[in-house]
Structure formats: C-alpha cells, structure tokens
Please model this.
Amino acid sequence: MVIETNEGEHVVEDWVIDGLFVSYFVAIIDDPSRIYSARLTVGRRLLAPNELKRLQKLEVAQTERQAVRTGRPFAQVRSGELKALENILGLAH
Model:
C-alpha cells in the first residue's frame, strides 16, 4: 500500500486497488531491526529503525483503510507466521 520512491513514500491510490479486485487485505509486519538487516543485505536504501517503524505503521493503516473502504477482510500477521496466514485465508488443512 506504500511504495518507496526517491522523493519519499507514495500511498497507492484507491483507483489502483479498485482495479485489482482484492479478496483479502493482509498486512505482514516484522521487527524494524530485522527489516533494517534485510535491507542492508539486499543493498536497499538504509532507513533508521524509527523510520522503518513509521513506514510499517503507515503500511498497516493504509491496508486496513482499503479493507474497510472495500468491505473486504483485513488481517495482520507477523512475518514468517505461515500457519496464521493459512488460517486467516482458510487454507489450513
């Protein structure tokens, strides 16, 4: 829901989401220090952990806003919690 650009973050506009016919909105969160390490590993622009935390909150808020706006389910899970994600999406066996 948020795209990083050289000029700063860009919130994905409603008309983009409307064209995707989304069934579920899931925000995947992680510890900002882990995000920092992952960005360092792949050579992405480094941001301070407090900035990563702010961006993650913005991402979650925008994901939830789109879910409410479109009447679709919203869930938030921690990175790596595949069983929780399967349960949310009804994919558990």
